[in-house]
């Protein structure tokens, strides 16, 4: 008589995957474009890797500082006032150089329209707060 062959069962994996979760990163092309814009010259590959690491550390420090400011104020969300306070403590925003001047100087017009309130016809202010 023939014996029936039983299919092998594969044990199911429960729980989380074995991969370590990766931190989100800024796209390399964005960092390279920003750096090229301000450097106005070609960037060596070795120099670019250092710039990339420095920008990653800078944004980690920036986010942890903003988190500390909002936590100190008793909030769970970061607000624009926290960012302005951070930039003031870094010396980027002063009484002679307000945040709106920095926005007008360094950001393209599309972003300026989103960040700086502008009065338009019909007694409306864009962007609405």
From TrEMBL:
Major localisation: nucleus
UniProt-listed CDD domains: HFD_CENP-T
Coiled-coil spans in chain: none
Places the protein is found: Chromosome; Nucleus
GO cellular component, one term: nucleus
Location of region: Disordered: 1-26
Signal sequence region: none
Residue ranges constituting the CENP-T/Histone H4 histone fold domain according to the UniProt record: 22-116
GO aspect biological process, one term: kinetochore assembly
Highest taxon of the lineage: Eukaryota
One MF term in the entry's GO annotations: DNA binding
Keyword tags: Chromosome, Nucleus
Membership in a protein family: Belongs to the CENP-T/CNN1 family.
Record-given protein name: CENPT protein
């Amino acid at each position: 008589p023939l014996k029936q062959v039983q299919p092998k069962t594969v044990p199911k994996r429960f729980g989380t995957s074995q991969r370590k979760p990766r931190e989100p990163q800024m796209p390399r092309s964005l960092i390279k474009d920003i750096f090229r814009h301000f450097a106005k010259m070609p960037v060596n590959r070795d120099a670019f890797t250092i710039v990339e690491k420095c920008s990653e550390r800078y944004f980690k420090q920036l986010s942890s500082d903003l988190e500390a400011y909002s936590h100190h104020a008793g909030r769970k969300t970061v607000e624009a006032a926290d960012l302005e306070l951070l930039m003031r403590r870094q010396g980027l925003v002063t009484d002679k150089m307000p945040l709106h001047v920095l926005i007008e100087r360094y950001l393209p017009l599309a972003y300026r329209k989103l960040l700086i309130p502008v009065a338009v016809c019909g007694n409306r202010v864009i962007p609405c707060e």
